[in-house]
Each structure stands twice: as structure tokens, then as C-alpha cells.
Amino acid sequence: MGAVLSLPVPVPVLAGDWPDPSFIRDGERYAAVSTSGGWAPSFRILQSNDLSAWRVTGSVFRRPPRWAKGTLWAPELTRLNGRYAIFYSAMPRRKGSWYCLGVAAAPAAAGPYSDSGRPLRCGRYGSIDPYPVRDERGRLHLLWKEDGNEFRRPARILAQRLSEDGRRLRGRPRELIRNRAPWEGRVVEAPTVIRREGFFYLFYSANLCCTEDCAYAVGVARSPTLFGRWKRYPGNPILRGGNGWRCPGHASVVLDPAGGYKALLHAYRERAGLLIGRQLLADEVTFGPDGWPRIGTGVPAPPLPGAASTAFFDSFTASALATEWEWPVERVPGIRVGDGLRLRGSGKSGRRVDAGLLSRRVGTDRYSATAVVDLGALRGRALAGLASFQSPRVAIGVAVGRRRLIVWQRRKGRYRVLAQTAAPAGPLAHLRLTAQRRTLRFEYSTDGSTWTSIGGERRTPVEESARLVLTVGGEKRAAGRFTEARLTETAGP
Q1: How many whole angstroms separate alpha carbon 91 and alpha carbon 460?
Q2: Angstrom distances, CA of residue 120 to CA of 10, 168, 226, 290
């Protein structure tokens, strides 16, 4: 049996949306990365001494590689011949291609990373979820998922020889497994492999992910050789939802210093649905008398407090932007801090109310957020505000200009002003967004003490992975200044 995690371990170990984790043991610490989607800096680098307390220490890309569009998925962190490498999936800019695989390398886990400059592999049916592994003869291979389910074809996990520098694939890919068991549905993906006592163990995720009716779970198969006949565990899946968690998956498995195995994975909090995204969990991997592995008790551990809060206060007086702030890859705003936050809209976004934005992950669906806008710094029809944001097509927020204050939403790409009033008098406008699960309330103030409601209670159009964002827009190249921003988590039933 593996060594147990030190107790108490928070569940989740990191609040907020951190899907598709990958981690390694890096000296005396653990280093991890996760999917960044359309946000930059891409692939945030996390570090922990004990799998319990995590902190953001950097990122792989400040801007995505030139060959890739903005959405970056499923990074895999590994050591490779004295260096470190990140294998990842991204949508290529060339037309007619689905997801491709890329690789970036660095002298240390924390970076700096340099991309190879071109896709490692593109396939007709897409290539995602890369994982490097050595076969029984020590030869390096790359595993990945052929994204066939997106094309009404089987989903397959393939393997192909990989050069020792990780920059070239050799020969032809060969299939390891494809979806066939009833519980797997149309999907097998997210491979991770360990070798133990004469067997390769292939952990994989299967079935529907990332919707309200998700059925994601983790299974395992084993083989004495990498290209041998893979036998699935008869008791699959070895990890499914329970204890207040839904659809766990994308397990990353690592040998710890005591000789046991640990897993990082993601799951949705049941009561919040998809709203706060896939949170990061840690658990033990143990082996039974039959030689087959288990992850924890077969369901994630019940929620346990202790993870670092996503609450914050920022007066933007530091010389650099706080690490936790992020922005859209394809709509990079102008950012300057030191004397408050000066935020300028992206030239690609026209007059959108959220033409420029900065975001932070939110780890709860019950919170109060405020932002203070310098009205004197706004010009023309420019608006500055804060919002709950899912994507450029789905958001809801409050914004203020020199003449008006509005509550707005974007649902399925359609923009509407839900409420409007005259802008408050005074040099500063305090804006507040209060979230109680899917119900939002917006208020404004001139002094931060006496608040006036606008628009009443609203049900948010945001359905998944909600982020808090500061916004500026309303006219081309709009600019605004924020003197502070704050988020406070609130208790509730």
C-alpha cells in the first residue's frame, strides 16, 4: 500500500477552475500545470511542498505559439533528458485542421519555456491529451487521444515513437485502446501510464465530460508491454462521482518519495453544477491483492475546508500586476499598474462593453465583489465595470460611464442592457456584484458605504467556469482606471 497523504488535506486542494491537471515530483516539491483554455498567461505553473497548499509561480506561455489559436488544452509536464517539457493540445491557425499536439521545453519546471515553433502532430480527426512514456525497452513514445468522437468515429488512444529531444515523432501511430465498454460511452481519453511489477497500467477517463448531464469517470487497463494486449479492469470505473462531487477525471499519477502513488484529478462540485468549473483534487492510488489499482475509495473524498481562498483585495499599487490576474489570449488589453489599474480595450473588440478585461478565477458561487472606478479618467462613451464572465458570448455585469450606469448581459452572443440610470455624481463610482449561486444582484455607491440597487435580482446566463472580470469598453480603444478591486467569499446554506 502507498504512503498516505498528510492530514488534513483540503478537498479541493485548490479552489476555482483548474481542469486537466498534470504533475511531477520536482526535487522536494511538486510542480503542476492545467488547461488554460482561452486565457493568458497560458498553462499556469503551480508548486506545492505537500499536495495540500498550492501557489501560482509562473506560466508556460505569456502569448501562445504563432501556429496556435487561443484555446490551449491538457498540458503534460515531464522531465526529458535533464530538461523539462510541456506537451499540449491546441487548435492550429491553418484552416481545415482540428486540434494538434505541440511541445515546449525549459531548463527548469518553472521555465522559461521555448516552443518548438510548429505542431508536433496534426491528424484528420484531431489529437489531444498527449502523454510521454518509455516502453519496456526504454524507447520513448508519445501517447495521445485521437478525437474521433467529435467526428462520430471511435475515440482511440494511440502511441508513436518520439525522438529523445521530444521534438519529432517517428514511424506510424499504433492503437492501444478504443472506447468499447458500455460505461465508456463514446469517449476514452486523458491517458497516464505507470509501470509496476511487470505491468504497464494505463489510467484513462471515459464517457461524457463537461455538461450538466456529464458521466465522466476513470478506468484502468494493464499490459506487460506497451504495445501488448491491454486488459481492462473488470471493476471499471475505479473512480466515479460521489460525496458531493460529479464527473471526476483526467487523473495524473505520480510516484512519491515513500514509494506510494498520488493522483491529481479534477471534478465538479455537485451543488454548484458547472458554475465554478472543475476543481483540483488529490488522492491516494493503492493496489489491491489482485494487483489492480484503486484511486482513494472509488469516489472523491467529501469536501473539506482548507484550500486557499480565491478572495482578494488589490489596490494596484505594486509595480507589477498580481500573478492571479489573467486576460483573453485573442483580445490582449492594455494594462498598467502602480497608480491604480489603467485598463485599455483590445483593438480587436470594437465598442463592446467588455472590449478590455482582466479576470480572476472564483472558487465559490457565493461571494461579493466590488470595484472602484475613477470617473474622471473616462472619456466620451467609455464604460468601466465588473462582471461575471464565461466567454465572449456569455456574461453579465455592471458598468459606469460619465453619463450613465448600466446592468448588461450577453446570452448566446446577444447583447442587452437590462437596466440603466444616470451615473452617480462624484470623482469615484463604487460598483458591487453579489452572487448567491445563480442569482446576482448589482449595486452602486459614491462612498462605498451607502448602496443603491439597480436592475433587481437577475439569474445569471453564465453556466460554467464563471470568472470575475474587470471590464472597459463602450467605444473603440476605450480606457478606464480602477483604484481598487475586491472579492469576499460569503457563507450560505
Answers
A1: 29
A2: 37, 6, 21, 39
Task: Specify the pLDDT at position 335.
Answer: 97
Domain boundaries, the chain: 22-295, 312-489
Class of domain 22-295: mainly beta
Q: How far apart are CA 151 and CA 13, in angstroms?
A: 35
For the chain, list residues with pLDDT below 70. Answer: 1-7, 492-493
* Cβ proximity of 19 and 128 under 8 Å: no
Cell of 41: 498567461
pLDDT at 2: 37
Separation between Cα atoms, residue 463 and residue 237, nearest integer Å: 27
- CA gyration radius, the chain: 23
The pLDDT assigned to 294 comes to: 97
CA dihedral for 413, 414, 419, 420, sign (positive or negative):
positive
Could you tell me how many residues make up the chain?
493
CB crowding 466-484: b at 16 or more within 10 Å, else e: bbbbbbbbbbebbbbbbbb
The pTM (predicted TM-score) of the whole model is: 0.94
Distance of alpha carbon 51 from the chain centroid: 18
Joined together, the cell numbers standing for residue 489 give 467569499
Residue 7 has what pLDDT?
52
- Are 94 and 115 in contact by the 8 Å Cβ rule? The answer is no
User: How far is the C-alpha of 269 from the C-alpha of 453, rounded, in Å?
Assistant: 30
Distance CA 322, CA 342 (A): 14
Torsional sign, CA 180, 213, 266, 4: negative
Give pLDDT, residue 1: 36
pLDDT score of 9: 84
Q: Which of 385, 320, 331, 337 is nearest to 356 (CA)?
A: 331
Our measurement of the distance from residue 72's CA atom to the centroid of its chain's CA atoms, rounded to an integer in Å, reads 10
pLDDT of residue 4: 42
Place of cell 442587452: 416
3-state secondary structure of 433: strand
Convert the pLDDT of each residue in 258-311 to its tens digit: 899 999 999 999 988 899 999 999 999 999 999 999 999 999 999 999 999 999
Please state, in angstroms and rounded to a whole number, the distance separating the CA atoms of residues 344 and 391.
19
Full DSSP string of 251-306: EEEEE-TTS-EEEEEEEEEGGGTTTT-EEEEEEEEEE-TTS-EEETTSSPPPPBS-
Query: Domain 312-489 falls in which CATH fold?
Result: Jelly Rolls (2.60.120)
d(CA 362, CA 381): 30
Q: What is the pLDDT of residue 493?
A: 42
Give the DSSP per-residue string, 333-356: PEEE-SSSEEEE--GGGTT-TTSE
